[in-house]
Amino acid sequence: MRRIQVGIVGAGPAGLLLAHLLRQEGVEAVVLEAKSREYLETSPHRIRAGVLEHGAKEILRRAGVGDRMLARGLGHKGIYLGFDGQLLHLDFETLVGKGIWVYGQQYLVQDLIRHHLGVGGEVLFEHEAVDLEDLHTPNPTLVYRTPEGRIGRLRCEFVVAADGSHSSFRRFIPGQRVHEKVYPFAWLGILAEAPPAAEELIYASHPQGFALFSMRSPSLSRNYLQVDPRERLEDWPEERIWEELNLRLGGAAEIRPGPLLEKSLTPMRAWVVEPLHSGRFFVMGDAGHVVPPTGAKGLNLALCDAAVLYRAMCAFYKEGEAHLLDRYTQDVLRHVWQAELFSYWMTTLLHTLRDPFEERLRVAKLRHLAESPLLQGFLAENYVGLHTTVRYVDLIPVQP
Ligand code: FAD
Ligand code: DHB
């Protein structure tokens, strides 16, 4: 049976970044990925997130995978809040001295794969991890199925589950508790060949519901509408989507419709698994915690976890020091619950609520935010990631 140091399940941003950082320290990591490389890199089902915190951009740059991100991504100083028919600009650089970077998750995954394979890293595509054996021994063993249907085994020193929100591996954490919140909304998302509504993102609050105007490039728009979780995609033809986006923008900016390249529905949920490790088994990213998308935190949290586990594994392999591994859950939960808090705050600030009392409180909160530099500072420091990725930039050595 093949022996390796670290076996990672899932070639998403969390698994790939960890594998790449470990590889640069000479630690042998193998990534098992159920899907094909082509699916990860091109499927419309993998478009997903678009906002990188200031610290996420820095971590990726330091890790040596940021060349295309820096060339093609869009640096934004802040965001717009749209409400009462006006646009309020929140200038993060003035408020907290940092901005954000707009770059699609699918491009980032392409970059991570290209760079990791380029330095001899190993990603076994179309290899589905199916079981974990000998969990509480020094050599947990990953069982996988090859594309030909054969069963193989990797005898590891550590196993990491980075297998996304539908994770089948997190079940291996014994005695776990799941803290969950179901929000009574879903997001209808579109990607369209159309110029974005503004040069920066607009988070628009309207009595009819929330709308988000984002982008992937100066000619590609990524927009979202708050909808009821029971809605069906077929009830939303193109024309209705553009009409609704226009209405919710409330005349604050102009949108020019264009052909849709993708349309999806995402229910809004949050949950956190505790603990996130057991012995030599660790859970990272969406496999361990999910946030509603309003604060744009999911992808950034996945990168935080990878940075924390990288530091802990380096301490183990370089200095024979295990205490950071023992603290993994504690360290990760700190940034996770901060992001849950912020995502909850943004979600309940911007989405139209059914309860009339709650709805009036929400409008009061929005008006308070418009007038209060202190509240704007709270939003800005969380949005750019002062409590999440920015905390971890210094853990990543700069690659030449
Ligand atoms: P993932 O990116 O999900 O990667 C997990 C990988 O594991 C996948 O490639 C999967 O194929 C693989 N895998 C699963 N099981 C196995 C197995 N048994 N064996 C081998 N491989 C396996 N975040 C935002 O910030 N903003 C957004 O707008 C946003 N939109 C989203 C829309 C959707 C539909 C989804 C699902 C997520 C969205 N997110 C968004 C969240 C963000 O995309 C995630 O937080 C991010 O992908 C987490 O990265 P990850 O590496 O933990 O997991
Ligand atoms: C995007 C998604 C988000 O959830 C968000 O808060 C901001 C931008 C996006 O896909 O561009």
From TrEMBL:
<dbReference type="GO" id="GO:0071949">
    <property type="term" value="F:FAD binding"/>
</dbReference>
<dbReference type="GO" id="GO:0018659">
    <property type="term" value="F:4-hydroxybenzoate 3-monooxygenase activity"/>
</dbReference>
<dbReference type="InterPro" id="IPR036188">
    <property type="entry name" value="FAD/NAD-bd_sf"/>
</dbReference>
<keyword id="KW-0560">Oxidoreductase</keyword>
<dbReference type="InterPro" id="IPR002938">
    <property type="entry name" value="FAD-bd"/>
</dbReference>
<dbReference type="Pfam" id="PF01494">
    <property type="entry name" value="FAD_binding_3"/>
</dbReference>
<keyword id="KW-0503">Monooxygenase</keyword>
<protein>
    <submittedName>
        <fullName>4-hydroxybenzoate 3-monooxygenase</fullName>
        <ecNumber>1.14.13.2</ecNumber>
    </submittedName>
</protein>
<dbReference type="InterPro" id="IPR050631">
    <property type="entry name" value="PheA/TfdB_FAD_monoxygenase"/>
</dbReference>
<keyword id="KW-0520">NAD</keyword>
<feature type="domain" description="FAD-binding">
    <location>
        <begin position="4"/>
        <end position="341"/>
    </location>
</feature>
